[in-house]
């Protein structure tokens, strides 16, 4: 029997889905999960997602580099904000990061109870995540971080991309997965153009971080998955042929 794949469009809706024994793929394209994959792909040893600023701030004393952002802006007193570009060129290789963001780290927190495993997904490691999921004997729930509880286009389109990539191996069991697969397949040749109209892209453009948006919409820059082990996200390599 084929495994199932379904989509939850917001952390506010996660209680409507059965997480038990599923692999949950949390996605926050702009920018939390794209930033996490970039950091792991550039050698950081682990990322501890933290839901609130105060807890994250206190982890500095335990030797973590702290990354904090609210509403698209770096938080006061934090070394790092939420830009993937900050981690390029192995800038923080070997370091432990504690990170809190507006939507992404909350979605990770809300995915924890009962899941078989939690992965973080991004366009920049789409193929690696798909390749890994094909080998696992579990149903999949794609959990979109959305924006402050609302649906957003970029996380939902990533869900469509992952469903489209896995369509041969999984049965598509929810209307949201069917809808997003179809939308992704009609927009994938011009993803940046289509997503330029997304509300979150406009919000980030107002903060002059267009370079982050372009970076987050590239495909397959890293052949790693990001997996939560205990409280830490770590990188696992995927063999290439
Ligand atoms: O920094 C980001 O990209 C966003 C900020 S907001 O959603 O525009 O307020 O945070 P994230 O948790 O990555 O969605």
UniProtKB/TrEMBL annotation:
InterPro entries: ComB-like, ComB-like_sf. Keywords: Hydrolase, Magnesium. Coiled coil: none annotated. It is an enzyme of class 3 (hydrolase). It holds the Pfam family 2-ph_phosp. Its cofactor is Mg(2+). It catalyses: (2R)-O-phospho-3-sulfolactate + H2O = (2R)-3-sulfolactate + phosphate. Its EC number is 3.1.3.71. Belongs to the ComB family. This is Probable 2-phosphosulfolactate phosphatase. The gene is comB.
């Amino acid at each position: 029997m084929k495994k199932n794949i379904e989509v939850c469009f917001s952390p506010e809706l996660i209680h409507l889905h059965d997480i038990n024994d599923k692999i949950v793929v949390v996605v926050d394209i702009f920018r939390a999960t794209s930033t996490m994959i970039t950091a792991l792909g550039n050698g950081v040893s682990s990322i501890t997602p933290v839901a609130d600023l105060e807890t994250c701030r206190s982890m500095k004393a335990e030797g973590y580099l702290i990354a904090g952002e609210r509403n698209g802006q770096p938080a006061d007193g934090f070394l790092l904000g939420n830009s993937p570009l900050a981690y390029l060129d192995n800038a923080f290789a070997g370091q432990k990061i504690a990170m809190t963001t507006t939507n992404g780290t909350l979605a990770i927190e809300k995915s924890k109870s009962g899941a078989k495993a939690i992965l973080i997904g991004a366009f920049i490691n789409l193929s690696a995540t798909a390749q890994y999921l094909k080998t696992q004997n579990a149903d999949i729930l794609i959990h979109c971080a959305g924006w402050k509880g609302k649906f957003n286009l970029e996380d939902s389109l990533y869900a469509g991309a992952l469903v489209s990539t896995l369509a041969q191996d999984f049965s598509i069991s929810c209307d949201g997965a069917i809808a997003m697969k179809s939308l992704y397949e009609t927009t994938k040749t011009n993803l940046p153009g289509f997503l330029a109209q997304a509300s979150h892209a406009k919000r980030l453009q107002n903060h002059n971080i267009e370079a982050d948006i372009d970076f987050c919409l590239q495909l397959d820059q890293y052949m790693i998955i990001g997996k939560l082990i205990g409280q830490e996200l770590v990188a696992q390599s995927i063999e290439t042929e």
